[in-house]
C-alpha cells in the first residue's frame, strides 16, 4: 500500500505515463524510419545519413594479423588481432587509453597522438612489420570517399574537437603514426562500429559454416546508438540512425529540454540517440526527478551535486535500480546514497518505476527502428534476417533484449520475430576492424 498523497501519485503517474510508447506510435515511427531510409539512400532530404562504407561481406576465409584502432568513446584501443580462419579471431595484444573531458573538447591532433602512441607500444611489443594492414574503427559520423578515406562530419556523444570537421580521419591517423616513428604503418580501412559488429558476425558465421547467412544489420546500443545494414545492391551502409528525428510521437518535455539545453550535439541533432542510448538515459531520469521535486514533496535532493549537475546520474545505476527486488529496495538506497542522498522507501519505489519506464521506452524505440530497416530489406518480412548487436546497454542492462523482442512481437508478430537471429557479439569493435581491414586487403589485390 502506498502512503503517498493523491496529488503526488498523480504527478508521478503523469511522468510515468509520458514515457509510454504504445505499439501504434511505434508503428508510425517504424514507417517514418523506412521512409527516411529510402530517401536517404537516394540523396533526398532525410535525417538518416545512409553513408557508404566501401566494404563487402567477408567470406569467412580471411586470415592473418591485423593492427586495429578503435576510437568511439571515453576509451580508445590499439591492438593486434589474428584472424585464424574458421571464424576464429584472437586478440594478440591490446592497449587501452582513456580520454578525459578535456581531451573531448581539445585538439583532434592530441587524440590522434594518444592513439598513435598506443599503436607504437603494440608494434614494439609484438615486432609488427610495415606490411601489416591497419583497420581503424572511427565510431562517429564520417563520409567515406574510399575504404581508406573518411571525412569527419559533426561529432556526437558530447565530443567537440578542433581541427577535425571536414578532415580525413585516416589521413590524420597516418600523420600521427608518422609523428610516432611509424611512417611504415598505413591505415588501409576505416569503418564505423556498427559495420564492425556486422562484419565480425558474418565472418564468424560463414567461417564456421560456409552455408551460413551473413548478418544483415549491425546495431550498437551503448554510449551511442546506430545501425548499419547490408542494403543489397547499395552495399553495406552506415545509417547514422542515432540522428533519426521522427520521434515526435513518444517525445516528453524532458526530451525536449535534453535536446535544447545540451550544446553538443547541437539541438535537433541525434534526436533518437538522445532518447535511447546509454549516454542519455541517466540524464533523462535526473531531469524527471528534478522536475518532480518541484511538484511533489519527494526527491528534494537538489543540494546533491549528482542531481544538480547535467549527467550527474550515470545510466549504469538504472540497471541497478531495475534489478533491485528487495522489500526495502536496499540496492536503490545504496545507489542513491552514493550520489549523496538519503531516501524514503516511497522515493525509492518511485525512482525504480521511473528508471524502468525510461529504459523500456528506449528498448521499444530500438525495436521500431529495427522494423524500419527490416521492412526496407524485406517488405513482407518473409525471410530469415541476422542482426548483430554490441554495446553496454544491450549487454549490461538485464532484460533489455527481452523488451526489444517483446516490442518486435507487437509490431511484426511472434512468428516473424522468431525468424530474426539476434546475436549479441561482445567486444566486437577491434575484431570487426580486423575483418574489415582483411577484406580491404583482399579487395585491393583483386
Ligand atoms: C554515435 C555515432 C555513430 C556510432 C554510435 C555508436 O551515434 O554517431 O557513428 O556508430 O554512436 O557508437
User: What is the number of E strands?
Assistant: 13
The radius of gyration over CA amounts to 22 Å
Low-confidence stretches: none
**Class per helix and strand makeup:** alpha/beta
CA distance, first residue to last residue: 71 Å
Strand content: 15-25%
Main sheet attributes: strand count, strand direction, barrel closure: 6 strands, mixed
Give helix and strand order, one letter per element, not per position. HHEEEEHHEEEHEHEEEHHHHHHHEHHHEH
The helicity comes to 40-55%
What ligands does this structure carry?
A: alpha-D-glucopyranose
Averaged pLDDT, please? 96
Shape: globular
- Count of helical stretches: 17
Spatial order of the strands forming the largest sheet: 1-11-10-9-12-13
What descriptive keywords fit this protein?
6-stranded mixed β-sheet, 5-stranded mixed β-sheet, globular, alpha/beta, 13 strands, 446 residues, binds alpha-D-glucopyranose
Description:
The protein has helices at residues 6-18, 23-41, 101-104, 108-126, 169-179, 193-208, 253-261, 271-276, 278-295, 305-308, 316-323, 330-338, 345-377, 392-396, 400-412, 414-418, 428-445, and strands at residues 51-52, 63-71, 75-85, 88-98, 134-138, 142-146, 149-152, 187-191, 217-221, 225-230, 236-238, 385-390, 420-424. The protein has 446 residues and is an alpha/beta fold. A 6-stranded mixed beta sheet has the order 1-11-10-9-12-13, sandwiched between helices. A 5-stranded mixed beta sheet has the order 4-3-2-5-8, sandwiched between helices. The model has no long low-confidence stretch (mean pLDDT 96). Bound molecules: alpha-D-glucopyranose. Alpha-D-glucopyranose binds at residues 72, 139-141, 156-157, 192-194, 220, 222, 224-226, 240, 242, 273.
